[in-house]
Amino acid sequence: MLELSAVQREAFANKVRKGFNTTDVALEFGLMTSEVSEAFTAWYRGQDVGEELADIVIYVAGLAEILGVDLDEEVGRKLAINRERVYVPLPNGALVKRSQR
User: Fold this and answer.
1) What is the pLDDT of residue 9?
2) What residues are paired with 89 via a beta bridge?
3) Which of 67, 61, 87 is nearest to 26 (CA)?
4) Measured between alpha carbons, how far is 30 from 14 in angstroms, rounded to an integer?
5) CATH code, 4-97
6) CA-CA distances (angstroms) from residue 16 to 13, 19, 32, 42, 86?
7) Which residue stretches of the chain have pLDDT < 50?
8) How high is the pLDDT of residue 31?
9) Which of 32, 35, 42, 75 could form a disulfide with 55 if both were Cys (CB 3.0 to 4.6 A apart)?
10) Residue 60: is it exposed, middle or buried by C-beta count within 10 angstroms (0-12/13-18/19+)?
């Protein structure tokens, strides 16, 4: 199994090797958004969505490396928060976080 930190390093190293952007954060967010759209389109058309989801992860990992974010640490921290979070259904069935009063 790959560690997110290794994925980050490899995604960034590939960008450097191939001459892709490593400094324009806004561009990276835009490109990542287009990958999300491609994944949705593949799913909507009943196509294999796995490769598109992998592209999203690679973009996130590369962006995290550009920004100096440790995804291993941040994902672990966020999963712990989500485990403790309580959601309540609205009348329309949508789930929302219960306020922390």
Assistant:
1) 97
2) 95
3) 67
4) 19
5) 1.10.287.1080
6) 5, 5, 17, 28, 42
7) none
8) 96
9) 35
10) buried
Alpha-carbon torsion (59, 64, 82, 32), positive or negative:
negative
Q: What are phi and psi of 89, to 5 degrees?
A: -85, 140
pLDDT reported for residue 100: 58
- Contact status, residue 66 vs residue 13, Cβ threshold 8 Å: no
Q: Decide: residue 28, CB within 10 A, 0-12 exposed, 13-18 middle, 19+ buried.
A: buried
What are the structure tokens assigned to 41, written together? Answer: 């389109």
88: enclosing H helix or E strand: strand 87-89
**pTM for the whole structure:** 0.86
